[in-house]
Each structure stands twice: as C-alpha cells, then as structure tokens.
Fold each of these.
Amino acid sequence: MYRLPGNTINQQRLPWLSIALVSATALAYEVLLMRLFSIVQWHHFAYMMISLALLGYGVSGAFLMLLQRPLLLHFSASYIINLVLFGISSVACFLLAQHIPFNAEEVLWDAWQTVWLLCNYLLLAVPFFFAANAIGLALIYYRDRLSRIYAADLVGAGLGSIGILLLLFAVLPAQALTALGLFGICAALVAVRELQQKLTIAWLLLPLAAALLLMPASWSMLEMSPYKGLSQMLLVKDSRIIAQRSSPLGLLSVVESPTIPLRHAPGLSLNATTEPPAQLGVFTDGDGLSVISRYNGDRQTLAHLDQLTSALPYHLRPVNRALVLGAGGGADVLQALYHQATNIDAVELNPQFARLVSSDYADFAGHLYQTPGVALHIAEARSFVTGSPGNYDLIQISLLDSFSASASGQFALSENHLYTTESLAESLQKLAPDGYLSVTRWIKLPPRDTLKLFATGIAALRASGITEPGQQLILIRGWQTSTLLIKNGAVSAQDLEKIRTFCAARSFDVAYYPGITRDESNRYNRLRDAWFHDAAEALLGDGGERFLDDYKFNLRPSSDDQPYFFHFFKWRTLPEVMQLRKRGGAPLTDAGYLVLVATLAQAVIASLLLILLPLWIYQRRINPVKQGVRRTRVMGYFFILGLAFLFIEIAFIQKFLLFLHHPLYAIAVVLSSFLVFSGLGSAWLGRVSSDNRGRLLSQAVTAIVVLGTVYLLSLGSLLEQLATLPDIMRILISAALIAPLAFCMGMPFPLGLARLADYAPDLIPWAWAINGCASVISAVLATLLAIHLGFATVIAVALVLYALTLWVFPVPCNS
Amino acid sequence: MLQRYSLFRVGVVLLLLQASAVSGDEYADARQNLVDIIEQDVRDTSLYLDKKALDPRVMSALGKVPRHEFVPAEQRKNAYRNRPLPIGYGQTISQPYIVALMTDLIKPQADDRVLELGTGSGYQAAILAELTGQVYSIEIIEALGKQAAERLSQRGYDNVTLRIGDGYYGWEEYAPFDAIVVTAAASHVPPPLVAQLKPGGRMVIPVGSRFLTQQLVLIEKDPDGQVITRQILPVKFVPLTGEHD
C-alpha cells in the first residue's frame, strides 16, 4: 500500500465536530446566497451564480490532488487555516460580489456583463473552495476512517439544511451572513481543540470573530439593484420602508409613500372613473409588489375592484362561499367583500405577510382578516384545496406573481403545483354546482400564460370526465390581464348575456365562450389578429394536438410530474428570437430556461477541465507511484454517484412537496433526512471489515434500486392516502420512508473512497473533485430532465445510474 | 465665494457648449447611421406596424436631437448604439428604435399639445419638442427632473414645460392633450389621464422592463369619447403557427 506523508499520526482523535460544523455552515451558506442574491438581483441569475460557485468543491479536489503532500505534512495547520479562511471569505466574498457592477437586465446589450458574471462565480467559489479543502484534507488524512469523516460531513450538512431555515426566521439575511462567518471561525476553534493544538491559536482567532461582529453596518448592507421595484419606489419623494419581515419565504418590505401616494390596481379598466384608496406597498425580495389597501368598512371605496377582469364571476352568480388563494395583502378578499360574499376563506402561505394585514397594519387594513365571514388560513394553496370540504361558489386565483418576473421568464425554472392539470381538476371538485374557478394572469404577447392555462383547463375538464369542455370555459381579457373561468356546469344563455354586458361596460374583450364568433373577440383591445380566440378554438377542436406542436411556444398543460407551468421555451423558436433580440425580440425568450442551459454548459466545460487537467498535470509532473486502479473506473464511479445521489434527493423533494403541504417543510424534512440518514449509513460502514466491501456495495445498490422502484411505483398513491394525517405524523412518515433508502445511499461513496485508500490513495482528492463537479451538473441536469420528461424519469434514471456503479466500481488492476 | 462659483459654472457651460459644437459634427455620422438602422428595423417590423416606414418628420427629429447630450458622460461612447442606456437612479434612456415607434404612434402634429409622464433624461421630450407645439413633462424623481430641465433649456427647447411631482392626475391646467406619452412604469392607466386625452387623441405606453420593451400599448379615444387599445409587438414575429408573411 502506498503511504502518504503524515500517516504515522493519524491515530489522533477524529475532528468530526469541526467537519460537521463546516459542512453545516457551507450548506447553510449556499441556501443563504440564494436568498441574498434573490434580494439584490433576480432569482434565475442567482441560481446560475451559485450553481457555478459550487464548483469550488471541484477546484478544491484538483488543488488537493496536486498539493496534497505538503498540505498533509502540516495537516493540522492546513485544516485549521482552511476553516478560518472559509469563515472570513464567506462574508468577505459576498460583500465584494455586491460591488461587482453586474446588471442582469443588461446582459443582452453589454458584453461586459458576461465578464462581471464570471467575476461573481469566481468570487463566490472561494468560500466553497476552502470548506471543501478542509473536508477533503480530512478524508485523505484519516483515510482509514474516512467513512466516519464522510458521515460527519453528511450529518452536518443535514443539520445545516434545517439550521439555516431556522436562522432565516430569526434574523435578517445580512445578519445571517455574519452568523455563518462566525460559525466558520467556530469550526476552526473547535478544530484547534479536536486536534490538540496550542490554545494560543484560538486566541489569535478571537480578533477575527470580533472583527466580524463589529463590522460597520454599512459594509454588510444589501445593495439592491436599482432596477428592482423597491429601489425605484424609494426614489419617490418621502417614501420609506416602515417595516421589514424576513423568513426563508422572502424578505418583506413595507413601504409608505405619504407625498405621492402608491396606487396599485393592475388590469384596471380604461373606463374606470374611480381610483384605488390609500395603499401600503409590500415588496417581496425587493420586487413583486402587493398592496395593503386602506379600508374603513365603506364598500364604495373599493369600487375600482369591480373594474378588473377578475370581477367577472361575481356578475354571473351570487357568491356566498368564496375561496381566495394567495390572499397576500387582501386585494382579492376586498373584492369578494365588495361583491358581498358572506363566507370567504383567505389562504396565504407566508405567515409574516398575513400578520402584516391581520395584526401590524390591522387598523389601516380595516381589520380585514377579522371581518365577520372572513377566515384566514396560513397554508399552501394546493394543499388547502385538497383538504378543504369544498362547495365553493368561487375559487379565485389572481396574479400570484409580479408582471416583471412573469414577463422576463424568471419562473421558467420554478415548479408550480397550482396551475397543473391535477390541481385544476381538484379545484373543480371543490366547486358547488354552477360554481366558478377563476384564474387571472398577466397578458403576455405573443400569448403564452393565458393560452397554456386555457389548455390546462381543457385537460382538467377532460380528466374530470367532461366530454365537451368548451361548454364550461370562458376567457376574457383587458390590455393587461386575462381571466379564465371554468364553470362547474354548462355556461348558460343568461351567463352569456351577463358576460357581454360586463365586458362592454369595461372595454374588455371576450376571447372565448361557447358559441362566440371571431368578430366579437378583438373589439376593444385590438391585436394584430384575434390570437387568443383563434388559439382557444384550435385547442378545443380536433386539431388541438397539432396546434400545440406547431405553436412557437410550449403550451402543453403542466402536470404534477412536470410542474413547470412557466416553461414556454421551444428550441425551434430560438434562432428566430436570437435574430430579433436587439430589435424588440428579447422578451420573446424565456430567460430562465436559457439560463439553466447556459449553467449546464458552463458546469460541464468547467468540470471537464477540473477533472482532466489535474490528472494530466499529476501524471506529467509528479510521476506518481503506479496506481492500483483504473482511472476510467474511478472517474465513472464517482461521477455517476454524484449524479445519482442528487437526482434522487431533488426528485424526492418534489414528490413530498404536496404531501408535506409546504415547500419549506419539504426542503427541510427531505433534505435533512437524506443527508442525516446517508451519514448514518456511512458511519455504519466503519464497523464493516474491508474484505466485505464489494459484497456490501452490491447489497446497498440492490436495496437502493429495489426500494427506489417500489417508491417510484407506489409512493404517489401511498402519500395520497396519508395526506390527511396531522403535520407531525406526515413529517415522521416522510423521514421514515426516506430513512432506509438514504441509509443505503450513504454507502457507495465511502466504499469507493475506501477502495482508493487501499490501492490508490493519491486519487482520493481526484474522486472528491469528480464528485463535486458531478453534483453541480446533477442539480442542473435534474431540473432539465424534469422539465422535459418529469420527475418520475429523474428517479428512474438515478436508479439505472446506481445499478451502473456495480459495473464501474474501482477494482485493483490485477483482479 | 458665490461669485466665484457662478463664474466657474459659466466657464463649465461654455466649455460644454464648445465640446458640444465639436462633438456635434463628430457624432453626426453616428446619428445618421442610427437613423438608418432604425429605418431598417421598421421595415422588418412592418407586419405589425401596418407601414413600411415611420413618419419622415419623426426620423428627421431623431437625426437632429443629439442623444449623446442626454446620457451620462460614461455612456457617451454608446449614445448612438440602438440600445437602452442606464442614466442613473435605476432609469434608462429608451432604445432609439422604441422612441421612434412610440413617437410615430401618437402621430405628432406641429400644433399639438403633448403630455409626457416620466421625463427621465429628457430625450423623448426633446424629440417631441421638435415635432409639436407644446410639451408638458412630469418627472417623479427630483434629481432626474432637474438634470433634464437643465439639458432641455441648454438645447433651447423653450416649448417644453417641466414639473417635478406626481403624474397620476396628469396636468389639469393644460389639459386636454392631443397626445400623452407614458414612459414610466404604471400598474394601470390612471383614469384622470384618460379624461385629459382629447377626443381623437392618442396615448402610448411601453410595457416591459427598463431594458426590454415587451409591447407598446396605444390608447385611442374616438370622437365619441369611446376608448380602445391597440397592442403592438415591436418586432416581426408571427406568434401562432403560420409562417412569416
């Protein structure tokens, strides 16, 4: 066996606590960066920057491969220094990155923006590089007990995934950044003790911690892009932020503008003569404006709410029981009150937002959520519908996302479980006879959202056994918004008369109702052609499939397995759009999808460099002792593992999302369960003798494939049956279902490393680099696969990949 | 001290005027080149505009107004690129192609009275001032409004009246208007603005983000006061399944 330097002293105590701490902090930092960049920039570019910054793990592997000998000679110092540098750089790099003049909005126009984006990746990769160095060094140094080091890494990451969510509930994101910097320094302090180093080193670290704590507040202030809605609002004379609330669901900023009042009424008819009452603006992550309107109990002050396309259902039938999904600042609840709905269920996901209306600004909002007949529910919309007794006269879903986010395609990467075929079908079941499901969307040109929603409505009606869906659909539009109504029953002649009257009074156009003529559909808000009407008729007719194939955007209904409602991109449209990009054609692209593809391409290129280059240098310059395993196998094995592990993790978060009724629960429970139980699986390997490793890998992989297949086939129906259990039971059941699968998934990686430790220890950091790169590629690739083929396919591919690991498990050259 | 400051200011203005005189020639070719590019772009978007060329008066105004004087110094090198440019305060000077389209859509006449909401750099107001009788412009951001007022005054646009403040209620004192140009983002069209538009008048609103215009909305009030909108895609793109015409 090839001996590494420093081998004689690795009998010392394992630094498992500092490993767990740095791993927890690094994972927390990754989540925090997403939050921070969603606030200062926009979500999709944040996704790209942070995905690529994680390649710091890959860089670390390459670095360790080339410099492992000198570093291992001074292991304790190298390990502690990397921890310290992680702590400092996690704060410093973000603060520096804020001063890079990157403007996502200008990417199309200014080549320099690409350079600034690259600077961001490089800067943000630095903290991950140091964290990975520390963990990677420990894996090599304690390679006889590496399964325990890996276990500490996984368990730490699992705890970090819960810890950051709790931290983000407790403090503002900028404060969380300082806290994570301090955790990094703490990890170093713990390491000093674990590695029995002189305590004087600890004293040297304290000033660093103090410097982080005493840093001037102006340094750590978030520098929001001047193009975000909040920045623009604050330029208005005397407007100011009067409250901020922060949680993992977003940073809420409440703004008042006493001199020049805020007046937010998107979609207001041009015939309207009334204006909105006084309002407070609520920005989420500096954008996505919602408002809290002043309400004094006088319904007439809300008259403008009758001048919106979303008011139509109230004119078609008396609405007693209404369900408002995404209640936010309460505009839709006020609209229901204006139309004299007597029982209103208002559902809001973000408890902090709800409290702003129900408590902090209750006087301003006229105690809206305490009004008799109004019941506020803090819940995820889809889950609330699933669990509700139903019998609603109206289910209202109105403009849940901001226009700018929707128009720029930012949501192309985001899953949405409210606009899926299954979700609309479920909502239909919760309607009273002749009740309406009403969905209002921004108008985008050329038409996208509205038509996809129409197609989804048709699919939902067909899935509910309706043979003539066209008899139950109504689509109207203004110049800004469209409203789709799906009726639980056939649209009657009286309904048609009321629709015509409503639209004529407000200069809205009817795009579709049963029996509409083309002439009626393009009167007040004239388009070059009657696009909405023509598309609606085509989707309902025999040529619907062909229309979907031929249309330049993807209008196929989304499903729970492929919940990407906002994915409109089609590759064949790209050349035309690119040709027109500087002549008004840029908004025709879905930036989010292209960002995803660009991220994947960059990750693949960088990974190839990070995997192959160090190997090449290593072979050329260092002239190693002949290695005892085939490198192609090492590369295949660790790359496949990196892909497969995250494929399963990401797909399971989606599978449990509806079951756990909340995206935060899903991420916290699923992620931490996978990481902690994988860590336990890895730790358990410490008890297994090295002779049994090959057999153990076969057993672990067989168990993963069998369990995964069982889950793939039956998890959906099982979770559906258990969906009504209390929260705590559902959380425990989720953890219990994940535990055996994750336990087994924790074994292949340390088994492979142990094999390298026996036969090619110099390659351990290379394996670390390969796994790091594969993980970055995996996260992006999983999303792409899910968009095109669904999450079930992602799991199936992962299981095939796991099976393949048996084939490429590194074996000694002579066997 | 005050006197020294004033002298200094006069000196700076003189220098700027000199620079402007030199750069005026220097930029003339670039400006003409920009006009040519816009004319080509308009030909490419003719399907949506129902015309193969914009009003020659509009194009002439674009060829005349020195865009480089309406952008920050660091952006002067880009002034005649057909692209939006940042002007500070999270605002932009629009893409010249979009400025040309918007101006053409309101069919400006020499004796028109035009209201502009969102003065920004003052460039759009300058174009309008070249084409119409009186331009009334409202800017909500004080610093931008002051800069624009100074620029417009330096260029001698005496027919532009600028006010800093809230544009929601239009400018009742000078209403009704033959045309209204809204360049600032708005969640809806304020009812007072519709009221201040003359019968037969036109209002244009760009929809989209600061750097990317998604569509232009033209609001027309007929002689009976009935309001209709036309939604215009600023690009030749057939959205449905058909081929290009």
Amino acid sequence: MDYSQFLHMREELSLIAVLVILFIADLFVSPDNRKNGKSPILNTMLPVVLMTIHTVVNFFPSEAADVFGGMYHYVPMHTVIKSVLNIATLIVFFMAHEWMKREDTAFKQGEFYVLTLSTLFGMYLMISAGHFLMFFIGLETASIPMAALVAFDKYRHNSSEAGAKYILTALFSSALLLFGLSLIYGTCGTLYFDDMPQHINGSTLQIMAFVFFFAGMGFKLSLVPFHLWTADVYEGAPSTVTAYLSVVSKGSAAFVLLTVLIKVFAPMVQNWQEVLYWITIASITVANLFAVRQQNLKRLMAFSSISQAGYIMLGVIGGTAQGMSSLVYYVLVYAAANLGVFAVITIIALRSGKTTLEDYAGLYKTNPKLSFLMTLSLFSLAGIPPFAGFFSKFFIFMAAFQSGFHLLVFIALVNTVISLYYYLLIVKAMYITPSENPIPTFRSDNYTRIGLAICTIGIIGLGIASIVYQSIDKLAFGL
Amino acid sequence: MNILSLFVLIPLLMLGGLWAARGIKAIRSVMVAGSTALLALSVVLTYLYLSERGAGNTADMLFRADLVWYAPLHIAYSVGVDGISVAMLLLSAIIVFTGTFASWRLQPLTKEYFLWFTLLSMGVFGFFISIDMFTMFMFYEIALIPMYLLIGVWGSGRKEYSAMKLTLMLMGGSAFLLIGILGIYFGSGATTMNILEIAGLHNIPFAQQCIWFPLTFLGFGVLGALFPFHTWSPDGHASAPTAVSMLHAGVLMKLGGYGCFRIAIFLMPEAANELSWIFLILTGISVVYGAFSACVQTDLKYINAYSSVSHCGLVLFAILMLNQTAATGAVLQMLSHGLMTALFFALIGMIYGRTHTRDVRELQGLMKIMPFLSVCYVIAGLANLGLPGLSGFVAEMTIFVGSFQNFDVFHRTLTIIACTSIVITAVYILRLVGKILYGTCTNKHHLELTDATWDERVAVIGLIVCVAGLGMAPFWISSMISDSVAPIVTHLIP
C-alpha cells in the first residue's frame, strides 16, 4: 500500500490531529478546574487556536486526486467548501465561550469540542466521498454526534426532547437514504461515483431510488416537506448548536447534494430538476409563511433557515458551474449573516434568558451595538445591499435564471418580500416598539465580540470584495 | 479620480464622520459640510458638463469611468452622466442640502437619523450616476431600505403600519425589477450589464421584450406612484418626518421615472411602442385620480401626497408619449415637482412643528401669525398649480405640448383628460390656501406662535430660489435635457 496517498487527505488528517489533541488535553484537566470551568487549556483558547491553525493551513487548494481506488475523491473546490465550514465552526467556537463557562456545561466542555469536530469530520468525508459507502459513513459520522450536541443541555427538558427528535428523524432519513442506495446498487452494480453514470438510464426503479435518496438528503437540508423536525429541534437545542446546525450542517449537505447530482445522476437531469423545482417552491413559500407567525426568535430563524435552504436549491437546480460557485458563495455569506444573528440571540439568551420577539422590544435603547449588528445580519439575510446577502441572492438568481427557470426565480423573488417582512419585525421590535422592561444593558465577553466582528467583516466585505466570488468561480464545475 | 465617484465617496465619508461624531454640534457640522460639498460638486458638474458639451463633445455619456467588478458575470462599476442625470443630481443635492436644515432640531437619536439619511442619499446619488444595471439596481435598493427606519422610528401617526407598507410595496416592485433586469441581461446575449452597450447591441428579441418591458416598467412604476400601486405613497409621506418626506417625494419618487425612461424604454423600444397604451391608461388614472383625491383630504400631508401621485403620474404619462418634447417635459416635471414638493413638505413640517396639527379644519388665519411661512406656502401652492414664472408651468406646458404632438385619437383624448388635472389642482390648492392662511385665527394657542427660525429660512429660501429660477430661466436646462433625451427617443422610431 502506498502511504503517500494519505497526503491527499491532508484536510481530514489535520482535523483529526486537532480532534486528538483536544481529546488528550481534556484528559489532563484537573477535577477542580473541571468543576468551576477554569480549565487553563480548554477554556476556548486552545480549540480556537487549533482551529485557526487548521483553517489557515488548509486554506489553499492543492491538486485534484483520486485516493484508495476512487473511494475518496479530491478536487480543489472541496478545499473552498471545507474552508467555509472551518470558518463557520470557528465562529461557533467563539460564540460558545459564554455558554461553556456556565456551571452545568463547564465540566464537559471538552466533549463539546470533540463532538463538534467529529461531525465536521463526517461532513469532510461526505464532501470528498467518491463512493456511496464512504458517503454514508460520512453522513452518519456527521449526524450521530450531532444528536448528542442537540441534547447537550441535558438538564433542560427542551434540549433532551430535541435530541430525541433529532436522532429519530436522522435515523429515519438515513434509513430512507440507505434504501435508495440499495436500489441504485441493484440497478447499477456499483457504488463508485465515477462508474455509475453509465448505468443510470432513468428507469422507473432508478427514479424511485432517486426519490428515496433525495428524501434522505431533504431531511438533512430540512427542505419542505421533510422539514417538520426543524423548528422543534432548533428551538430546543442550545443556541450555539442551533447556529452550527443551521449553517455548517446545512451548507455541507447542500454542497454534497449538488456534487452527487452532477456526478452520479447526471443522465437523469430532467427528473431531478422537476423534483427540485417543486421542492424549492414549497420550501421557500411554506417556510416563509410559517415564519411570519412565529413569536420565538429561534423558531423564526428555524423557518428562515428552511427558506434559505430553498434559495440554496436555486443554485443546485441548474447543475451548472455558475450554480455551484453561487451556491458556495451563498453558503459563505449565509454563514456570516446567520451566525451573526445567532451570536446575538445566544448572548442575549444566556444573559437574560429571553428569546421571544416581545422581549426584544426596546433593545436598541439598552444594547445599541448588539441591535445594530443584528440589523446588519438580518438585512444581509433579507438580501439588502450593500450587504453581502444582496450579492449572493443576485448571483444565485442569476444562475437559476440562466438555466431557464424564470418562473421559479420570480416566485423566489416575491418570497424575498415576505421574508423581508419577518426580518423587519425583529428590527421593528428592537428599534421602534416601546417596552416597559427591556433587556438590561450588558457587556458581552471578548470571544463573542471577536465572533461578531468576523461576521460583520464578512457581511460588509464579502460582497464588495469581488475577489472572493471570483476565486470560487475559478474552481467551480458543472454538468 | 473620476468626478462622479465623488458623489458616492462624499456620503461614504459623511457616514464615517457621523460614526465618529460625538455630540450634536459635531453631527451638524459633518452634515452641513457634506451636503454643502455635494451641492457645490453638483454645481461644478453642471458647469463642466455644459462647457464640455459646448466644446462639441457629443458622446452619449460624459465623464465615463469603468471598473470591472465581477468579471465572470460582466458586472462593472460604470458611471457616466448625460443631461438628464446632471439635472437629477442637481435636484438631489439641493434637496439633501435643504433637508439637512429642515431636520436641524430633530430629536431623539439624531446621529442614527443622519446615518440613515446619508445612506439614503448615497443610494440616490449612486443610482443617478450608474450606467451598469447591477450597480444601478444596487443603489436603488440602498435608497429604499433606510426609509423603513426613518419612518418607523422618527415618523408620526400610524408610522409602523406606513413604514412596513411602504417598504414591502417598494421591495415588491424591486422584485419585478430584478427579474426584468435579468431578462434584459440574458435576452441581450449575457455579455454585458452596461446600459449603453445593451442599447447599442439592440438585440433583445421582440417576444422577450414584451415580457420584460411590463415587468421593468411596473417595478420602477411602483416607486413612481403608478396607479394602482400608489397606495404606499400617501401613508408613507404622511407618517414620515419632514426631511424624509422631502427627500422621498422630492428625489426618491424620481428614481421611478428615471428608471422607466433609462432602462425600460431605452433598452426595449419595440415593446415600449407596442405596450405603452396599457401604462398610459394607468398613468392617466394616476394623474386625474390623484388630483381628485387631494381635493377631499383634510390632512395637509395627505393633500400633498395625493398631489404628488398626480404630478408623478404626469411624469410617467409624459415618458410614455415617446417623443422628444414630452420626454423633456417629463424630466422638467421631475425637477420642478421635486423642488416644489420638497418646499411644500418642508413648510408643512414647520407649520406642524408649531401648531401640532395638520388638520385643515383646525388651522386658520396663519398669515398674520407666521407671515414668512405663509407667503412661502402661497408661492409653493402657485408653483404647484402651474403659475407662469414658476417651475410648474414650464414643465406642464412642455408635457402637454409634447403629448399633443401624437396625432391619433387615443393619445389626444388622454392628453385632454390629463389636462383637467391642472384645473383640479387649482381647486384644491386655492381652497387650502384660503382656508388655512386667511381669515381670522380662532385658536388662542396659535396666536402665540412664532415665525421661521434661521435654519428653516435657509431651507425654504433655497428651495424658492430654485423654483423661481427654473420658472424664469428654463431654457438652459431644458435644452440640456432635450439634447440628452434625443438619442433615447431616436431609438424608439422603428
């Protein structure tokens, strides 16, 4: 066996190194420090430093390669999407600091980092898989630790309930997906991505297999009608985990769906475009209409993230190279904006325990900076210039329009107006609605501030600095 | 450094200055310095433009600058101006300048107010200098969204409802617009977003034009208060603070007319010829219906808002007549309406600030109490009803002369119907003036009120000088506009 093959997997290897170091470091925390959350090694500093190093080292793409007989497949685009996930995870770590200091979580902070990085590792494998088994292993590695993360606040009833809901739906969707894969294997006789297209001919059995596969992915992406778990899990999970779930988990799944559709199901392009067409319309419209009625901010953001997944599907539907570059760019911009919103929600929930729209009334009077950053993030999510969200929305619409989906783009555009309505409801609460007892003024900790600063730089800079999109565009590929 | 980019750069610097400013004095000095610089810049630009044209430069757009932004998508930051945009920039600079003085004493959250105000003006300036569809659309949206907070936080009355209605309706319009822009881009072969180049290619298939033209026109038309999408305008204007009403009615609604002309008609001339009748009927309704609605209102701001619907309807009406005289009249009307409606809203704001009511039934005999403001109000009213010597006359005259140049029965009937709006305008303006300014004041509290302060006088006199100036000496500006309208109109002749 040629061990130099492993060098092509440097991203995975480096992530494993980070994971193992954190795991070992956790063993050396003294019991006293563990109890009062003052562990000198783990207190956010070590994970953040390691994660930063990992991100920087793996920032630049290398040559495309097939490893282990095609089980693992690397193209430069993978580095881009993995970097996006790395940066998002880093911001999540920054946000987690305040939560990790709390008494009921302080003693298990090592577990949080290890579990998070395990899911990230699973997503890496999923992204670079060249074989459906590898893909499935990645998928499971990504979802099982996630259930533990969702149930991390185990003394909170909501959190455990959300964990149970998540694991059940995740397993159910995996089962569906696996069933789809077995049908595909039956018709193709192989599970290698490279060999499959020549056996794909759009027979009824294969369409059925595709539907099962897509349903499984739909659960991960929380597309309508597979979205029913989303609102409950997002509400119950700790805010930091919700942020991770809504950005990193979703972003990787969207990219993987696109690559599988391009690589494996290319001959069935007509079929999957039709499925995606209706799913996209349903996701965007239904989620937006539900979001309008939400009072709890985390539930509102859950529906918002479902509709955002629908917008991301606009980049998938064409299967073009421009679709891919606009998808990756969209995920990046969405990560900055959504994490910005969740950072504010998290810090406010931790300091005051308040999460509903009414509680946010008058926030601008007491916490002007947080409200301002929240406003920027919400505007970016709604696609208002000069923030990056405008650019990413424009490009993804452009990609779908180019592929001829004019009506779909139009429906999506009309939906941006609905989404603007509920984002403005939050803005209205913060700036306009008067309040008897607003959330008191507080200073957020430095880690959250750094996280918010990165998000803000992203929100403002990603659109204006065209180099980001252009470098993504150079590496994109399509049907 | 291109002179046009300064129009975006100065507001950006102002934003930075405001961000750093501490205390009311610093904020005011940043605003005064910035808006004066913008006004000076637009005057210099007008001078440079005229001398360049005088020297025989006949390019479509002057002071061009192109900076490739998103190369794979053919998006560039391209700027350039012709006579129409120069006139609009001048208008915007005047309104921003006077608007700054009109909100001199605004409380609370002064800093935030001016931040959003400056962002709004940056969008407006950026829109008028852009000749790339993407950049133009971007600035268009930058100009829209600050309205929500400006009305929602600092407004009065049903401000939350009005702010939300205005924002959602305008954003709905921009959804139409965006699909229209994408249609134009891909219809013309997806090689450029530059308006001049697309017009030069002139290759959008007719069948596609017939889809994208109505969408684009509707998108911009919402902002131009096109019937039946004008309903945001009265509510929005009535709830907005003074300077925001000024900027909104004075400049922002002009974005609609300008965009219709520059994008919808310029790029899709065949469809414009084919489909203009639909929109002519709608704008005809706007003109007459707006004027009649103004007659029955009792709130000063609502009267003026409906009057704006009527006058902005006239802008779109004239554009759709598709000839040079009428289009020149349309741009003149944008200028004239921008100036006089800003004057009106400024005066209404000042009167409201003193009497705390805008209800016509509660106001009486103001002429004796605040003579300066009342005289100015009469002047604004006369300009509105088209008295010769003031700006309204020049614009409306040109529009109706131009409209009547179309020989067919349809256009001429519509022109005659639209002409009736002049009479109706006279009815509501004269009634209003008679009711609130003359007679004897019965309200004791009103007797103790004072006349305008110095900052208010700066705003009002500045606007009156412009209104009268445009009315007395219209030819230099109308010939500048007319020359620039010509290349767009020649496109329309098959």
